[in-house]
Amino acid sequence: MAEKTKLWYLKDFNLFESMSDAQMQHVAKITTMAQLQKIQPIYFPSQPSTNIYFLKEGHVKLFQLSEDGREFILDILGPGEIFGESGLTDEEAMQDFASVLDSALICTMKKTDFETMLKKNPEMNLRLTKWIGLRLRRFEEKVNDLVFKDAPKRIISFILRYAEDFGKMKKGVISVDAFLSHQEIAHLTATSRQSVTTVLNGLREKGIIQFDRRQLQIMNFGKLQNLTR
């Protein structure tokens, strides 16, 4: 199989669906593509906000650190997502950390080039607006979980969203590769690692899920949903 080119990856990125071949050739020229390894940092808070990032393969986490060094994960991103977009709202510096969860392929474009492209392509601008709206809705759901749900329901709600975002269905079973560590799930749900382990083991004993360090499998999605009500 021929090696996949940068242009191939960009064409597969749904934000660029409305662009012509000539426009895509231009996009390929003004972007750089890099393969980053697990835990490798992408940017830091206070770093100048000059780039927009397109995640093609792998997963990236966005997080902040408290004064005592505790990590608070804001979001987990998968293939097809954009990040670093705070630079589009006149922020002069990044507001959070971004690092690779597993090996990731990332395209980078200068913020100024991206803004110029949006001005010339109203359909792309609309797609971006819708995408930002979905990102905000995801944050709202997470905040609602933190306010209104107890720890076990927060963990289960996270698993459901994670499966919806990254899972693949086959013969009634939803599988998610690159499953997060129990500590990372704890950071995402404002719970303890022990609580995450207890909930996951309980769900496995009931036959609702199966998991190991590499994969999560949901055997009964409907039953898992019922546990959040």
Note down, in words, how this protein is organized:
The protein is an alpha+beta fold. It is built from eight helices and twelve strands. It has a four-stranded antiparallel beta sheet with strand order 1-8-3-6. The mean pLDDT is 87.
Topology, pairings included?
Elements: H1 6-11, H2 21-30, E1 31-36, E2 41-43, E3 51-57, E4 60-65, E5 71-77, E6 82-83, E7 97-100, E8 104-110, H3 111-120, H4 122-148, H5 151-166, E9 168-170, E10 173-177, H6 182-189, H7 193-205, E11 209-211, E12 215-218, H8 221-226
Antiparallel strand pairs: 1-8, 2-7, 3-6, 3-8, 4-5, 4-7, 9-10, 10-12, 11-12
Helix pairs in contact: 3-4, 5-6, 6-7
Mean of pLDDT:
87
Helical stretch tally: 8
Secondary-structure class: alpha+beta
Helix fraction, binned, reads: 40-55%
Question: Which runs of at least 5 residues are low in confidence (pLDDT < 50)?
Answer: none
This entry's quaternary arrangement is single chain
Q: From the alpha carbons, calculate the radius of gyration and give it in angstroms.
A: 19 Å
First-last Cα distance: 47 Å
Offer a few descriptive terms.
alpha+beta, 229 residues, four-stranded antiparallel beta sheet, 12 strands
Brief overview, please?
This protein is 42% helix and 25% strand. The protein has 229 residues and is α+β, with helices and mostly antiparallel strands.
